[in-house]
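Consider the record:
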Amino acid sequence: MLGEDRYQIAVRIAQKLRDTGSVCAVVNTVRTDPAVLRRVLRRDRININLALILLTALAWSYLLWLSVSSGMGLMMPAHAPWRAMEFALVFAMWTVMMVGMMTPSAAPMILTYDRLGRQTEAQGAPLAATVWFGAGYFLVWAAFSLLATLVHWALERSALLDSAMASTSNVLGVLLVAAGSYQWTRLKDICLAQCQTPFAFLIRNGGFRHDAAGCVMLGLRHGAYCVGCCWALMTPLFVDGGINVRWVLLLALLVLSEKVTSFGRQISLLAGVVFVAGGAWLLLVGIS
C-alpha cells in the first residue's frame, strides 16, 4: 500500500502520462484479510443488486400503469399545443422508460466499480462512491430523455405524430433506416466496446475515484458511451408512440444482449439489418 505522499506523486505522474495519450491508472491496493474482503464484496453485491432490482421494478411498474390505465391520457397533447405539465409528463415517461431499460445492462459496470473500490479502499466508503457513479450514469440518460421529449414535441408539432403519439408519416421510416445504418458504424463499435468491458473502461479512465465529483464525472463518461451505443435502438419508440410496453421490453432485451453476451456485436449488426428493413417497409407503405 502506498503512503499518502507517494500516492499523490503517483497520481500526478499518471495524469501526465494520460495527458500524452497513454492509458494508465493508479491502483492503491490495501492489505486486508481475503475472507473479510470476500464478505464485504458479497454484502455490497447483494445491496447493489437489490437496489438495482428495486429501481428497475419501480420503473416498469410505472410504465405498466401508464399502459393499462388512464395515466397515458394525461400525457396526450390531443389537438392542442403541449402545455408545461404535458411536457413534464412526457419527460417523466421517457426518463422512467430509460431507467427501466438501461439499469439491467448497467449492472455489470456498477458492480465492477464497487469491486474495484473495495480492493483499493476496503474500509472506506466505496459503496457511497458507487452511488455517485450511478448517479452520473443516469444523469446522462435523463439528458437523453429531455432531448427525446423535445424530439417528440417537434414531431407532434410538425404533424408527424398523431394525438396518440404514433407515426403519421414515412419520415420516420427514414429515421429507422438511419438508425439501422448507425449500427454498422465505427462509432457504434467504439461505444459498444466501452460498455462490454467494464474493468478495462475503468482502468483506461483513471480507475476508482475517491471524491463524489470524480465519481459523477466518470459515471457521466460511461453514460455518454452508453448513449452513443444505444440511442439508435430507441428509434422504434418514436414510430409506435413511445409507451408500447412490448416495444420497450424487446428493446431492453436487445440492449442487454448487446452489452453482456459474447456475441453482442453480431446482435448489433443484425438489429441494424432489421431496422433498415423496417424503415424501408414504412417508406414503401407510405409511397403506396
